[in-house]
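Researcher: Quick sanity check before group meeting.
Model: Go ahead. Protein one:
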Amino acid sequence: MAGAATPAPATDEGTAPAPDVDEGTTPTATAGESAQRPASVTGESSNSPAATASPSAPLAGPGTDPAPTAPPTDGAIPKDRQAEQQPGLSVCLTVTHLDGVVLARSAFHHSINYRSVVVHGIARQVTDPAERTAALDALVNHVVPGRAADCRPANARELAATAVLRLDLAEVSAKWREGGPNDEPEDLELPHWAGVLPVARHYGTPLPSDDLASGIPAPDYLPGH
């Protein structure tokens, strides 16, 4: 799990690379100077050292060092937050949003318009109940704004089956492409249509569940209701 594993070097395996683009690509923008900014809902950083257990003390005897003193209990990390103090795991997160399909006069110059972000950082598990709830509510509201307050919250069993991770940002880069095709000058007079086919996400008309009780209207926050 990315919240509790021992740190491992970041690799490119399993990472979805940004699509290849042609001459119209906007240069990559980097934000390497980003100083360990957490990506959690609360914005709370988790850069405190990992909690370690003291090794078992050897029996005292001739030629042996004194047994280590047990750490004081005052200020101990609560059990529900100990997972957040683990070293975490180096991860690479990639998100790509498709904006359009670029159709050129030549097959070689066909492309896509897109926006892509690649993040490298340390993932740690979030165990604080209030922060977990805030993160899960934000996830639901990101899909349909206002929905988190209009449904049953997760119970203890459901929360136990769901992991929430905080990602401390170490390096962020962004790439995107926009505009039309980049045909060769000698191809501009060819009798082939060229341009951009936009790709957009939209919601349709809400369809009530077959077992929905009568008299429950579609809520106002649903688009197209």
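Researcher: Fine. The other one?
Model: Protein two, sequence then structure:
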Amino acid sequence: MIEELLPAGVAGAERFDDAEAVTPFPEEEAVVARSVTERRDSFHTARLCARLALAELGMPPVPILPGPKGEPRWPAGLVGSMTHCTGYRGAVLARAAEFAGLGIDAEPHLPLPEGVLETVSLPAERERLLLLGRDHPGVHWDRLLFSAKEAVYKVWFPLARKWLDFDEADIALLPDGRFTARLLVPGPVVAGRRVPVLAGRWRVGRGLVLTTLVLGPAGESLTGPGHVRDLP
């Protein structure tokens, strides 16, 4: 699924279960040694995906440890993102000289639990979801909105180094597989200019929602697969 949403130059790998044997680095195992089996397995399989992406870029395998806010700490000169949920683990990586930021998120294609939408969305977003649900009832738009906000945060944090609340980005989902995120706080500065709007891609399949955001070296939003173009 992930390859259909990425431009050329971004390496990605995904797994839909934890059946593959993974030999973690000792430093990684120490992070989740006291976690339940499901948490340990998803943690290690996501890092297997990251090392497959590293290999695609010609880089050696290294431990991928979490930072203070849980963000993955990538080798110098790389940007990347990881995600895992029930039924999916994935990672994307690229060279920082070619891309300013990457964000991916996967969620089960199910409605959000009761009460969650009101917590994570703006009134204007909920109004747009009603229209989308009326015209395109085959998509759980509330879950897709949540996933898009998670992908936005994964691009935002490495650039801004601070929290972004759910109500600080206004997401507009488009039925054609795109979305835009208008930042309601000053956007991150990339290559000397502030980025006020991010744009990404989404896909639903195999019981999953998958969202991606890719920033070019000047902070422009990029899309794929196999080619790069600006999104409005």
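Researcher: One line on it for the slide.
Model: Residues 16 and 88 are 4 Å apart (CA to CA).
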